[in-house]
Task: structure prediction
Amino acid sequence: MKGAPVSKAQSLTEIPCGFTLTENAIPEESWLEIVKFLRLDLEKEDLGIMISESHANDIIRWETTPTPQNRPVAQFGFRYDYGKDVVVLPSDELNEGIAATPPIPDLFQKLLLQPFLESEHGTNTIQNEIFTQCIINVYIASNDSHIPWHFDDLVFGPRVLVYSFGESRPLKMRKLKTGVVQKDKEMQSASTEKDYDYYTAYPSHCSRYVLSESARYEWQHSVPKGERWRISITFRSLSSS
Result:
């Protein structure tokens, strides 16, 4: 991508266990296929995304996260309800008479999941690691789109796979220092900056990263506001427990 920033990383601690970052994970041609599939207009400030309540028959169902995060998102496989902070399973949709969430597109399987699995296990020995949920997050500079500090919900499985496109916004990570008492969700804001160890990575255009082990369960992460658009495509599974 013309003008894509050079990837860099800086940290106050060593790389979190279970975090890996791969640059140039897919070619630009694959990204352009994804842009076409999502019907994005990269020349427009809002990327041409249309948020609509009446999208039951659409393959791509754009919705928006609550203020102040302000991110357009599209989900596949099953939904995460950002308003209620709960996973909505296909069985829940059926019981509530809600339109079923579309499956993960074949194009994503081919261009994103297959290259990852082949890099992990080789072309002839792909393991049965199944990602059953996919979410597209769109960060638009004009509406301050961002993601606050959080852990991915424990209902999701042990590995989170993320592809990053566009602006190289920081992926900030933090972990409570040894000896600092872990506060519950409501009290986390009471922790001060000095209570944490920090690590920051800068996923570049067409890169991917994985959160697993300590990086998945002990390190919170966030993505701040930026100056240009960024799109992430995240794959997760349900926890076996």
Summary: The radius of gyration is 18 Å. Residues 1-10 have pLDDT under 50 and may be disordered. The CA atoms of residues 2 and 107 lie 24 Å apart. The helical segments are 28-38, 90-96, 106-121, 213-217.
